[in-house]
Amino acid sequence: MKGSTRREFLRNTGSLGAMALVGAAMGPATAWADPMGLPVGIQLYTVRGVIEKDTPGTLKQLHDIGYREVETAGFGKYSAKEFGQLIKDAGLSCPSAHLQLNGPEYGQVFDDAHALGVTYATSSTLSAWAPKPHTAMTHGWPKLGLDDFKRLAAKMNDVGTKAKAAGLQYAYHNHDLEFQKMPDGSYGYDVLLNETDHALVKFEIDCGWMVVGGASPVEYMKKHPGRFRMIHVKDFKAMPQAGKRPEGSELGAGFINYKPIFAEGRLAGIQHAFAEQEGPYTKPEMESAKIDYAYLHSMS
Asked: Can you give the residue ranges of the Xylose isomerase-like TIM barrel domain (predicted)?
């Protein structure tokens, strides 16, 4: 069921009975078993230390924990084809890959995406802008203006066009960089949404970074139906002081309330949800991955 159709159906009926009907249509095993009725996924950056040492073993452990989808962030010592086979051997699927899409041509990068079997060729920031000398920095990001975000949007449209020609869907992943205020009071993220082609450019909301940036994943999903296909489920210990980088935490140990985000994501047609954790880690990475899975699996 398409996101907009489901949204209209559930909101027009406004009843638990309607939700039950949708759940029945999806099947008893998948209805609301995990957040948004989706397989639990993980961005492999979360286990970046251990996966470099033992890629096959780490992927198998993730499957044993309960994860069923992964999103890549590099291939280590393997080729994309080899890495994709290791993912399959572990019983996992890989619907999205974070790729270096700085162009101007992306032939080999898109070949790697196909070797992995992904649907989404995903990136963040790109290289449409570069900080000038003495540029003001916030959380390690340069201060950007309206023209910078317009230039980034144009680059995203170019990547999206070429991804479509290669049989892939481009998706853009945010940090808190995109929530710098523009002269009219809007966010840079709004420029990216408004000046990119709806069919060519989809978005993956990093919910943790969006909230740290001062914005609401729920409100963005409501305001821009059909633009968001994936989310990163990330938590932070506390809202950082101005100019300070936040410290990551296991899911459920931070300050971000995911219940309304998952409820809206279900209506908005989110297709994939990946746990991701920032440092500094206070527990071994695989132990954190177990905690993150338990949190997501409990959010039925």
From this structure: 60-264
